[in-house]
Specification:
189 residues; alpha+beta; 8 strands; 32% strand
């Protein structure tokens, strides 16, 4: 008797900005592709990462969704501000997320929940501080192009304010990341 083969799929959890900010970030990603030959960020929707990519058995996807639904109950919606640009030299340029205690608490709570309830451990990232941002260019941005791009973007302005009222589970389809399921956050009355 043959054992059924299980397949692990890549997922990650993030915040997808609302349409206006989303569209603005998409335009900037395309600008980086056209002007600086960096297209890797186009493989995912504009987002703020809450939990780095992890593998999960696709046949247990319903369990993952149910657990994330449980997590979202009681998590509060909050206001968020994007302001200008930042960089992680020598390859990454991003839209800066203004320091937000509620966002940091959501991130921290989600990581604790993921370890306890989902048995997820991203050892490679455990020592890195949480630095929320929306990536515009990264791994395929060559160092000379980074210098040109950062010279242009370091003093450019970008401003957006929005209510974060949900987070998303992203799933890799073999070519790119797609929003697979969203989870609502509780609105304050």
């Amino acid at each position: 008797m043959r054992k059924k083969r299980t397949t692990a799929t890549l997922y990650f959890i993030g915040i997808i900005p609302p349409k206006e900010s989303y569209d603005g970030a998409c335009q900037l990603k395309h600008y980086f592709k056209e002007h600086f030959n960096s297209k890797a960020s186009l493989n995912s929707p504009p987002h703020i990462t809450l939990h780095m990519p992890f593998q999960w058995k696709e046949e247990k996807e319903a369990d993952l969704i149910e657990k994330l639904q449980q997590f979202s109950v009681g998590a509060k919606a909050f206001d968020l501000q994007l302001s200008n640009f930042g960089a992680f030299p020598p390859r990454v340029i991003f839209i800066h997320v203004v320091q937000n205690d509620t966002l940091c608490e959501l991130h921290k709570s989600l990581h604790k929940f993921a370890k306890r309830e989902l048995n997820l451990f991203n050892a490679n990232y455990k020592d890195l501080p949480f630095h929320p941002h929306i990536t515009l260019a990264f791994r395929d941005l060559k160092k000379p192009m980074f210098a040109k791009a950062w010279e242009e973007f370091q003093s450019k302005e970008f401003q957006a304010d929005f209510k974060v009222d949900q987070f998303a589970l992203m799933k890799h389809n073999g070519k790119e990341w797609e929003v697979y399921k969203t989870f609502n956050l509780e609105m304050m009355v």
